[in-house]
Task: structure prediction
Amino acid sequence: MTLPFEGSGKRFYPYFWYLKNKYGGRVAKVPLDGGFTCPNRDGSKGTGGCIYCSPAGSGDFISPSSSISQQFEAYRSSMLSKWTPVGYIPYFQSFTGTYAPVERLRELYTQAVRLPDTVGLAIATRPDCISPEICGLLAELEEQTDVTVELGVQTIFDRTAERCNLCHTFADFQQALALLQSIPVSICVHLINGLPGETPEQMVQSARTVGSMGIHAVKLHALHVLRHTRLAEQNYTCLTQEAYVTIVCDQLEVLPPQVVIQRLTGDGKGTDLLAPDWSRNKRSVLAAIDRKLKARNSVQGCKL
Result:
């Protein structure tokens, strides 16, 4: 069987390889702030947010601006000083990107897909913020560009979700997935390794389970401790780099080879990151993952 990542130089299906084969070159994902909030902050589901969520709602690296086009141009100017993409994917990253009236969403998404050299649209959201009306809008947009919905599931275990004040359940994810799979959009699932009280076996089970549900991509990263979060006030010990690398390799082995790996590590804003310190060096973490997969002589999906 020919694996979709053959020729990439990786033992898993990297996002850059997927984009190169789909669009003919390197594509830049542009993080945007659409002015959203979250039902876990405004009192609809809870207050204070998830225990690890920063005051910027994961949008810490976005250039502050009131305009979608200004945010885009600021990021593009910075990107062009390093390399020239063949296209861009506007990415509503901050807070919950579907948590607004449908007409407001239509306005924001339409602005984004009309930005220069746009080849797609990505929207980060919660599993409990997908509705039939929103799916109708996403289906309309899919006729204009490639749409990806990123669901912040983090874990399949409801007890973990309760400890982290996620205020959504695995059943919410199943319902959202069913709605999204009724329309022609791509689905990317976010998982966090190292959530309080969770074992490595549970983290691998989360990857195995979501990978079996017909998703298109995943993002994996370690839990970070950031300033001004509830987690920073708790007695929490982060995963070591060695433990994290082992868990990621175990997860890759049980993810189907056709699932695109959009991310294998992440980092917090430097001035706000309290731990783990090793997450600041992405290249080191990624290199360690590559070495361990090679030492195991394993590839993505080999244990399915």
About this structure: The longest helix spans residues 282-296. DSSP finds nine helices and nine strands in the chain. The longest strand covers residues 146-154.
